[in-house]
Design a protein that fits this description.
mainly alpha, 7 helices, 0% strand, globular
């Protein structure tokens, strides 16, 4: 799916752009909370702490970028200040449930082991998504001459992706086979999310 046209339409409308930034901030914040929720009560490694902290920082950074558009826009994460709020708010949970179901079936996991495995694969899928989405968004911002920038997030997300790859290699020798399936699950959810957003904004159909 070519998302560049929809991002161009969003960036060209100040109100929509503010809601888009706020929506990204919400999802980064939700991701940080999801990572923290997956932690073991005692066995917490440095990578998990670093990742959760950086996702929270991304949420804060994106919120601060709103000042470059209009400091009075999108003060909260209420539905009227997000794009496609229902899908946005259930995105990560829905992905987590689907991945847990798959991993439980494939690895016969339960309890903390299942929660940690889901953290690895869900976070990997989200990092792959971020690695695709943020550069396109930055290109649109640059072309539009916008003061908003996500360059620092792009660099950190690249680091996150490498960290997740290293953990997945340790988790399973055939992690790639399972990761491909998880990526497909997330891709379907993302396409549905963007299509729904496109319809809500009454923009031309995406190819």
């Amino acid at each position: 799916m070519n998302i560049k046209p929809i991002l161009e339409n969003i960036v060209n409308d100040n109100s929509l752009h503010a809601k888009w930034l706020n929506t990204l901030s919400y999802m980064e914040n939700a991701g940080a909370k999801k990572i923290s929720a997956s932690e073991h009560k005692e066995n917490v490694n440095l990578i998990i702490l670093k990742h959760a902290a950086e996702e929270h920082r991304h949420a804060y950074y994106l919120k601060k970028q709103l000042d470059k558009l209009d400091g009075e826009l999108c003060k909260t994460y209420t539905n009227d200040e997000l794009l496609t709020p229902n899908q946005t708010k259930f995105y990560l949970n829905a992905l987590d449930v689907a991945v847990c179901r798959y991993l439980k079936q494939e690895f016969n996991l339960s309890g903390y082991d299942l929660k940690f495995a889901a953290y690895l694969f869900v976070t990997y899928a989200i990092e792959v998504r971020a690695d695709e989405l943020y550069p396109v968004y930055q290109q649109v911002l640059t072309n539009a001459g916008s003061k908003v920038t996500v360059k620092s997030i792009i660099l950190e997300e690249e680091g996150h992706l490498e960290e997740m790859l290293n953990q997945l290699r340790t988790f399973s020798a055939d992690w790639e086979k399972h990761a491909e399936i998880v990526i497909k699950i997330e891709q379907e959810m993302f396409d549905e999310w963007m299509t729904n957003l496109n319809i809500k904004l009454q923009l031309p159909a995406l190819a």
